[in-house]
């Protein structure tokens, strides 16, 4: 029997993996992928709470909006990675270092 | 149907912006010769209309939920919407496009469309009453500002700033939505007032720990929007890399919207309304957590600003410090705190946009943001220097200028909370003193420092000088009509408190 706890553990693991990926990856595209993990951990939570909790369908509705926003965010993120790649021929974040101080 | 019309009549400002936005997109893609001028006209007109509608709505003082509780229209939300419309209107009128050397030769229609979308989402954020709406509008603000920051396509700095903004913002708002999902699970509803009902109905000790963790996760999103420590790292880079008109707007508008929603979220979700100070719902003591964050924010902002030589970067750190002062209004957990926040934001609009206007005009002539190139400005542009002196003194918080009134209100709101808050006010006062150092350093460079060689006098167009003058006047004339501003701020202090 899969209970709410199982879903929460999975989503917590996804969230932690996402944060870990953001902190350790050099490649901007990989960081964007890790961000997707973070957003999907929230989605798992929302849908699980909607199924098992007192919240009704609001959680599933919220999850749909999160998916839409995630797509929009990644579209803008990738566009910016691409323009920056055209300008300096590297997707690596540690080379984006002209702004500091 | 009648309900829909009633709801729509409370959202005229947003409707004006939406119509303006669609028209700008249409006009820009029409390929007509006069499309740049037309999109500018449409933008200014719809922003002005939104501002006027806000003022009109405020006179009616409505207080109700709109669209099944997704948005709330109450005098507090309307006050913030008016501030947001005014900020965008000023940026559209004065900063773009003629005055910005950085935006030269770039498409104008898209910029105005983004500006309108940013204003619209800021307004929605300021009046959100539901976690779904909160998250949606927060992300809409973020995504439009990412694109605006990267507006200089061929410029590495602009793109790098935007990339940092995207990655940082996505993680912060991702953490926030994770926190929101957990809060939804606990309280069983996405409406913010329902969260308060849940908290007020009694919280077990286990849940209390969870709610602390959740509120920190959610604060990541708000902290990112207002650039509070430790979510401020994007701020200096983005402010420096973005085109100056965008920087000027970002330094005021998303901050105002962020504080509006922070106020609403914590007051309507995590506190129980009272006539004087409010109570904490479920004994979740968030003000002391926010107090530490706010004290850190102003200290880090001010200390990092001490050594900056790039004007945009310096003003970025200064805006971080001001976010710290502004947060005092949220921490005070009373209606006086909310009033302080509104007054501070209005004064901050006048002083910060003014300072950015001077920076933009000097860049337009000289092509530099470096503080060292400001040496001798008192000879080369005496009027600009005088105006800059007024803006900087206002930012410090010296009495004849409005910046002082903002600081007075936030400090007063904190001190009236009692002796446990005194250390906090002392930290704020010490920070104002540290802040004075770097603002005066800019002034010293402009007035005293010797210039290299005899550079020509700056030729600033009379209309721009008039705008600078208007901003300068806005920094001390309101002191003489303070009763009106005080009355306006007091009338705005109604939070919708039904169910």
Could you please describe the fold and organization of this structure?
The complex is a heterodimer of chains A (101) and B (499). In chain A, 76% of the residues lie in helices and 0% in strands. Chain A contains three helices and no strands. In chain A, helix 1 packs antiparallel against helix 2 (28-52) and helix 2 packs antiparallel against helix 3. With 499 residues, chain B is an all-alpha fold. Chain B has helices at residues 2-9, 12-30, 35-60, 75-95, 108-126, 131-149, 156-187, 192-200, 205-226, 234-241, 244-269, 286-305, 311-331, 335-366, 377-380, 382-396, 402-415, 422-447, 462-474, 482-491, and strands spanning 64-66, 71-73, 271-272, 279-280. In chain B, the strands form two sheets. Chain B has a two-stranded antiparallel sheet. In chain B, helix 7 runs antiparallel to helix 9 (205-226). Chains A and B meet through helix 1, helix 2 and helix 3 of A and helix 6, helix 7 and helix 10 of B.
